[in-house]
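Exercise 3.2. Students should predict the tertiary structure of the chain below and write it as structure tokens, then compare their answer with the key that follows.

Predict this chain's 3D structure.
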Amino acid sequence: MPSQDEIFSKVQAALVDALALDDEDVTPEATLQGDLGAESIDYLDIMFKLEKSFGIKIQREELFPEDIFKNAEYVQNGKVTPVGLALLKERLPFIDLTKFEANPAVQTFGSMLTVQDMCRYVETKVAAVG
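Answer key:
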């Protein structure tokens, strides 16, 4: 099992390569969309690079739970319901949803994912394989 530093280093390298950034741009606190400029098409490249680098398989819905966001039981008036929030916490334990809970607008969810969240996600995947 790689150390947290090794995981960060490989995640950082994948993001630098996929998004044409400098190493110093990719900090644990940086958000993928807001700070690093990732767009939806970039996520496919990032996921591919992480799969190759760590020998894991990433399912898109593990990071982007569109099925929750498109379900009227979990979203009302553009905001995730308490039931939807509970499901997000269960499915995405590697993401800190504290800020999102304060204003659970669906359109803001994508801008929350940080480099650290990606590292925690990779860590859970590597642990499951190893």
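Discussion points: The domain at 1-64+113-125 is CATH 1.10.1200.10 (Non-ribosomal Peptide Synthetase Peptidyl Carrier Protein; Chain A). The beta strands are 75-76, 79-80.
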